[in-house]
């Protein structure tokens, strides 16, 4: 008997009050039994699914509480969309379950990226998805826009921007972006702008009332650039990161009197053999509010430019100074007099980082002698060029001699009990030889439990971080310092890593 026949017969019996016979009654009871068994199995399956859903919710609950940047890092292993590193996009691209998770965590949509590099239909789908998410969030947002040139793309971006005036951070990655997106720069909540467009195409940018942090680069051909050419709120900037020519540094420090953080990448690109290209002297600038100063010199730089740059920049309030030189030439040895003068003016200096600075070990020691107040010293891959001889190749700073000078008193004529008496933390990213290990122990001993510490001549060393080029030395050096570590000294001995300046 087919199921639909049974259903028809049951309906007929209900309508006519029909009483089935023994044979038919047994058939109906069999149908009912099978139906009850099927219902039982369905209920068991439903219960199992409900239990699985509860377990998934329990697993996802802590995941939903993770910070967006951690979620984004986790799902960077699923590069379904290599052009878009946005955490929300990466998470929702894994599967439909994680798409629901991404929708339930509005925090991961604080930052989005809009790379217009795919097919138009794909761009439209992403635009609709972003728009729906942005309408549901009340956070201040960050947006990254690149390669936006077509009219439909522009209308999409404008629609995203017009959803709400909540953009806080803006990244522009195209030489023609600003001319096509002038409405972006009217955002009243914008406080960070990363601007990689050419300046000559946009001589007059609108003023952003809350802008406090700016990062942009000056094209190499704009040698005579001046900040006054851009109508930006220089007076209210607190953080500035810029690349340009050496003579631009004084212009920026003069315009941005309220700066507390300044990063300058100098890219003059001058041939060190061209003596006729002597740069003009720079006016002295006293940056009284600047607390963090970073200077990266890239490639060849005229010696006079470096001397003028160091001698004209006075940072009396700086607590953190980083000096770096990428791919220096043999003629780019940093001048001792100007470097010492530059550091001596930083009377509030607490932390000094030197990265690949081409100077001799003796010069480095003397420069440390004019900054006795620093408490943290970071030396990474610093180079020592021979003062004479035919070999122009650089060598690493003599770490053994440097550590020895940090462990002993300076000559009496200097009237300084120790080179850096307030030093409590030292990080060295360099090669270590047999002699260095001996001097390292001597330096730590002198800063840990020696008579000088007990008498107050020098402060006690609290942290030592070493990055060894020869990883085979790590166990031996760690063993040498283990006794100090057991007494409470914070020590880390790790293999060499990428230069800090490249991070």
- Whole-number average pLDDT? 73
Strand content: 15-25%
By oligomeric state, this entry counts as single chain
Determine the structural class based on helices, strands and strand pairing: alpha/beta
The number of strands is 18
Shape: elongated
Please describe the topology of this protein.
Elements: H1 3-16, H2 22-64, H3 68-74, H4 87-92, H5 96-104, E1 111-115, H6 120-135, E2 141-146, H7 151-162, E3 167-172, H8 177-180, E4 192-195, E5 213-217, E6 239-244, H9 248-255, E7 261-266, E8 285-286, E9 292-298, H10 303-312, E10 313-314, E11 320-326, H11 336-345, E12 351-355, H12 361-369, E13 376-380, E14 383-384, E15 395-396, H13 399-407, E16 425-430, H14 434-446, H15 451-455, E17 463-468, H16 474-486, E18 490-495
Parallel strand pairs: 1-2, 2-3, 3-4, 4-5, 5-6, 6-7, 7-9, 8-10, 9-11, 11-12, 12-13, 13-16, 16-17, 17-18
Antiparallel strand pairs: 14-15
InterPro entries: F-box-like_dom_sf
Question: How would you characterize the overall build of this protein?
Answer:
With 503 residues, the protein is an alpha/beta fold. It is built from 16 helices and 18 strands. It has helices spanning 3-16, 22-64, 68-74, 87-92, 96-104, 120-135, 151-162, 177-180, 248-255, 303-312, 336-345, 361-369, 399-407, 434-446, 451-455, 474-486; strands at residues 111-115, 141-146, 167-172, 192-195, 213-217, 239-244, 261-266, 285-286, 292-298, 313-314, 320-326, 351-355, 376-380, 383-384, 395-396, 425-430, 463-468, 490-495. It has a 14-stranded parallel sheet with strand order 1-2-3-4-5-6-7-9-11-12-13-16-17-18. Helix 10 packs parallel to helix 11 (336-345). InterPro entries: F-box-like_dom_sf.
């Amino acid at each position: 008997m087919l199921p639909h026949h049974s259903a028809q017969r049951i309906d007929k019996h209900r309508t006519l009050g029909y009483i089935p016979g023994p044979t038919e009654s047994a058939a109906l009871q069999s149908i009912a039994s099978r139906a009850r068994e099927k219902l039982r199995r369905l209920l068991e399956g439903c219960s199992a699914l409900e239990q699985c859903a509860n377990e998934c919710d329990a697993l996802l609950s802590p995941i939903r509480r993770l910070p967006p940047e951690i979620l984004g890092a986790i799902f960077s292993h699923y590069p379904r969309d290599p052009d878009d590193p946005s955490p929300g996009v990466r998470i929702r691209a894994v599967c439909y379950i994680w798409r629901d998770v991404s929708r339930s965590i509005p925090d991961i949509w604080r930052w989005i990226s809009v790379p217009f590099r795919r097919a138009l239909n794909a761009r439209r789908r992403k635009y609709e998805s972003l728009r729906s998410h942005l309408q549901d969030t009340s956070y201040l947002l960050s947006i990254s826009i690149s390669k936006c040139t077509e009219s439909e793309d522009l209308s999409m971006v404008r629609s995203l921007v017009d959803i709400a005036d909540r953009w806080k951070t803006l990244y522009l990655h195209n030489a023609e972006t600003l001319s096509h997106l002038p409405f972006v720069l009217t955002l009243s909540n914008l406080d960070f702008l990363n601007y990689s467009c050419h300046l000559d195409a946009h001589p007059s940018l609108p003023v952003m009332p809350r802008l406090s942090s700016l990062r942009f680069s000056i094209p190499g051909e704009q040698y005579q650039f001046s900040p006054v050419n851009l109508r930006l709120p220089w007076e209210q900037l607190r953080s500035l990161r810029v690349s340009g020519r050496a003579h631009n540094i004084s212009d920026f420090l003069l315009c941005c009197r309220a700066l507390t953080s300044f990063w300058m990448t100098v890219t003059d690109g001058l041939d060190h053999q061209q003596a006729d290209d002597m740069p003009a002297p720079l006016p002295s600038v006293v940056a009284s509010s600047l607390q963090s100063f970073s200077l990266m010199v890239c490639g060849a730089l005229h010696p006079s430019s470096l001397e003028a740059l160091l001698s004209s920049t006075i940072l009396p309030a700086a607590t953190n100074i980083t000096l770096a030189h990428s791919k220096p030439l043999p003629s780019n040895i940093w001048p001792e007099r100007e470097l010492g003068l530059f550091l001596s003016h930083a009377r509030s200096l607490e932390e000094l980082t030197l990265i690949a600075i081409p100077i001799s070990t003796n010069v480095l020691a003397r420069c440390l002698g004019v900054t006795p107040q620093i408490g943290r010293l970071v030396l990474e891959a610093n180079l020592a060029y021979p003062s004479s001889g035919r070999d122009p190749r650089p060598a690493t700073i003599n770490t053994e001699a440097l550590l020895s000078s940090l462990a002993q008193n300076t000559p009496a004529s200097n009237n300084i009990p120790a080179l850096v008496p307030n030093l409590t933390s030292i990080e060295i990213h360099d090669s270590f030889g047999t002699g260095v290990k001996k001097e390292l122990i001597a330096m730590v001993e002198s800063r840990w439990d020696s008579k000088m510490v007990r008498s107050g001549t020098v402060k006690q060393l609290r942290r030592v971080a070493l990055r060894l080029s020869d990883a085979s030395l790590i166990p031996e050096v760690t063993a040498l310092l283990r006794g100090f570590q057991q007494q409470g000294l914070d020590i880390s001995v790790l293999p060499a890593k990428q230069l800090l300046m490249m991070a």
